[in-house]
Amino acid sequence: MSITPEESAALKTKILQNPRLHLIDHPMVQHKLAILRDKETSCKQFRELVREIALFEGYEATRDFPLRDVKVETPIAWSDCQMIAGKKVAVIPILRAGLGMVDGLLDLIPAARVGHIGLYRDPMTREPHTYYCKFPPDVDQRTCLVVDPMLATGGSLVAAVEYLRQANVKDIRILCVLGAPEGIARVLDADPDVNIYVGAVDEYLNERAYIVPGLGDAGDRIFGTV
Ligand code: PRP
Ligand code: URA
Asked: Which of 50, 129, 131, 150 has most ligand 1 atoms within 8 Å of its beta carbon, as the pocket-test mutant?
């Protein structure tokens, strides 16, 4: 553990005041999170819940998308409506657990492109190691929704944001199911423009850098591996 639970509690109070951290406190998300955390929840249900939570988080992360006026002819009359004004999106999962959030976002934004960043966290050093990286060719023109259920030390997401900045991406929004205070603070400090959307800010990291109380290993629970 790099900081004490007490230091983590103080950091939590601080980051919750940061306007670039968006806590999704919607009752539906909180309800689904409670089931997701339960160690008895099955692999099938876990996978479904991660997908659903991703969709809800997507609503919040796209709240400021600009609209344009359109006229639509209903069976009754012409109607003044609004549609998204040409915003292009890429969903960028961090392999492997991030894959569990992709379909929820594609339910919301079916035309989005998908890029992949393959990272794993070394269990000894906790440092991220990259094994794959492929983005859509026009990724720099797109709003990138980076998805990973777990933000623990923040090492993986700091690395992912660096790759996207190197590819000239301007608008990066991170969507996580759970985050630990020190990891969230690290990502916010590492990049002055990134926004983070999260279902809950948990308490601290344990000696294995797992989130407490957390939900265990998200990748293993999504894919049924141990
Ligand atoms: C988990 C998780 C994040 C990372 C978070 O992935 O999905 O990517 O750890 O940890 P960090 O914030 O300390 O970097 P893991 O490395 O276990 O790989 P997996 O998704 O393949 O299971
Ligand atoms: N990765 C996970 O899947 N869970 C944690 O608690 C930390 C990293």
From this structure: 150
